[in-house]
Amino acid sequence: MTARITSTLPERVSLLDGCEVKAGEPLAPLTSVRVGGPAEALARPRSPDALVALLRLAREEGAPVSILGGGANTLVGDGGVKGVTIRLPGDLFPEVAEVGEEEGRLTLGAGAAIVRLINLMRGNGLVGAEFLAGIPGTLGGAVSMNAGTKNGECFRAVEAVEVATVDGVGWLEKARIPHAYRHSELPPGGVVTRVRFRLPKGDLAASKQAMDKDLAYRKSTQPLSQPNFGSVFTNPPGGFAGQLIEKVGLKGHTLGRAQISTLHANWIVNLGGATARDVLGLITLMQERVKAETGVEIKPEVKRVGEFLP
Asked: Is residue 23 part of a domain?
């Protein structure tokens, strides 16, 4: 069902200094739900300058730009992704910890896994980002969607975000980035490169206990052992998307090889061999059924990228 993409764009990207590129690279293995077609040009810049040069080349070529972090909240279309797909290496920047008597500042690259923040926090006697423990994906993705759980959201711990655009790279204080539940407004065309967190010192034993308790709860209520992309929909005001989906009888419903989880109705899992069309069909069904039977409009928090085939 996937489409083959042929183009000279990867060749032009390959001429940039410090930028690795692969043409027609399958993206399904790079997403947590394991579906989707290939990237026309999957690029990995090895420096901030290379990233800026890549963004400028894409603008000059009129090529669309997509960002793929850990692929934890992304649905890639079966037809693949045209233009440049950027994936920042996890080691593009070194981790920096500046710790005082009462608090600390931790700076990590956007391509780093969220778990690296948790490890660095604990290693420096800091607390305050426990709610991010166990969330898959990268820090850049966490900032872009203001990821979190019922216990907190990313921007609660963020102090500043470094962003690359065609004009260069610069830091933005949190106050300059509008953000809300599962949403942040970064500069148009901007790519998060680093994130600085400000966290207090505290009781590490209590911090670990809180994380262990939350992770145990998530393992018992969410299908973490199956390919998925986490919550499909944001919770509507005053309610829970999963409860609404279960109420209309869709929990466990299957389309192709995709299934609305039998463990949590706001999750879709890949039973093996699912396509983006299967997944999107379930998303549409969930929205339409909930709207028709409850009058509530549920909105996806999953980011769609690429071409979706009929």
From this structure: yes
**The overall pTM is greater than 0.85:** yes
Helix (H, G, I), strand (E, B) or coil at 177: coil
**227 φ, ψ to 5°?**
-60, 125
Residue 277 designated active-site: no
**Residue of 130, 153, 162, 301 with catalytic role:** 301
Nearest to 29 by CA among 62, 70, 67: 70
Q: How far apart are CA 236 and CA 287, in angstroms?
A: 12
CATH number, position 168? 3.30.465.10
* 220 noted as active-site residue: no
Of 66, 184, 231, 261, catalytic: 231
Residue 66's domain is classified under what CATH number?
3.30.43.10
Question: Is residue 127 a part of any domain in this protein?
Answer: yes
For the segment 52-110, what is each residue's pLDDT rounded down to a tens digit?
999 999 999 999 999 999 999 999 999 999 999 999 999 999 999 999 999 999 999 99
The single residue of 34, 87, 182, 196 carrying the catalytic annotation is 182
Give CA–CA dist 32/28, Å, rounded. Answer: 8
Assess contact for 182 and 135: CB atoms under 8 A: no
Domain span at residue 48? 9-86
Q: Is residue 279 part of a domain?
A: yes
Q: In whole angstroms, what is the distance from residue 22 CA to residue 77 CA?
A: 18
Active site (annotated) includes residue 47: no
